[in-house]
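Troubleshooting: if your tokenizer reports a length mismatch, compare your output against this known-good record of 493 residues.
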Amino acid sequence: MSTINLDQDSIKAICGDSQQAFVYGFGHCKYVLMEELLLQPGSSIAQTFSGDRVSPHSYATTKTIEGRNFEIIYSSDNLPRVGVFCKNGLASVVVENLRRQSEKLPRIPLLFFIDIDGNEYSGPTPISVTTKEPTFNGLYTHAEIRRAYKLCYDPAIDPEIQSVARKTFEFIKLTKIADNTYGLEKQQAPWEQVGWDDAWVKRQEVSVSTEKEPKENWRYQVNNLARKVRGEAPILPEEFSSTSLQQEKIGHLIQKLSSENAYQVWSKAQAAFQENPEFQQAVLDKILPEEAYKVLKVASDSLKDNIEFMRAVLNKIEPKYAYKVLADAGVSVKSDPTFPFEVLAKSSAKEAGSVLKESNVSCKNNLKFISEVLKKIEAREAYQVLENLDVSQKNKIVLIRRVLEKSLPISVSLVLKYTPEASRNIIALDVLKKSPLNCVESVLQYVDPLTKDDPNFAETLFDKIKDVRWMVDLYKNENPAFNEAYTKIILKK
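Known-good structure output:
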């Protein structure tokens, strides 16, 4: 092993002007050996560190080339102590690099050795790093990669820390370039690989984190160390939000939302997440209009009674599904004097009847609302107004006539169908007059015997069907009044 050499040009290409580096990685990728080999004669690297050397126990002895101690992150994580120290060491080097950036000193790269020529294991993938399956979840290097990702992209982390972290971490493959000589080849970070976003969201959905006191919360400490570097006052423990972990998860979910996964993420989100206005808006911004109504399928009752949330869904939803917002609305939202009108305005003409159907009794008795439905609704569907009216309105002849006037001739039989029986005899003649010949039979099935016996009705019916011999013969035999009308008209001729 001691005869192995590293290609100095490849080291320089990755580490730049830096004379020091942190070394992490998998044992089978020789990361322990790399800490030694990076210091070979002629190397640009003069000092190397491993994560466990940045801990409360080694604080006094672990210093940069310039003689400065690294900042220490304290934690009560129940990982084996070396695992804790190595995870927290990631933050320590990023904080040091933030300070070095302000001092215009070269960054200290943190090298993750994740692959090697002849590797018998597959490299870290989005699934292997994020899965909760114990074999992979418990690997130190996977835990370190997850912490590195959080330092780079966690919305709860100071933005400057995120920016510096993204410049700090380097993922390396050891590539054999000659006998006994290996080069450092830069690799994609696992979170840059296809599938990471979905895999991370899946992990967040099942993760249960324990809120720690500020003094042991690594995010709180990192953010305050960033403030210290900038000369700003620290965030006091009492100002530290008790919901920071929830905010972190919400931030991650928002960050990874897309039009393809928005409903899936929403449907699996905890109720507390759904109550978060920022998360609500992010989902509605991303979700496709034709899927927006699905948000309500899994929304809590309190959200369905939140008129601002319901308006936000309505604003996004496709018009043909607008009535579904009213269908799923809570009692207080349905009772709002303006909301049903808003739903009707957004709705397609074809579904205006469904808006009336899903309205409460107050709307179904509100003549102004009924009039607006009649204006909006397609003529073919106008009968739905009668179908969905409150019973107290259905017998109003003026209203029935307005529905009949709006209706297409081919659907007037349905107007008669949904007219209460007590009023059908009043409207039946007008329905018959408007009906086309091919719909007469449909009209007659809703006409009561007394109406059929009315001479005016019989004459109108004969006039409508006189050119269809079989229909004339049928009604002559079935209805005396029609026979009489037929006879009268024939005699006149």
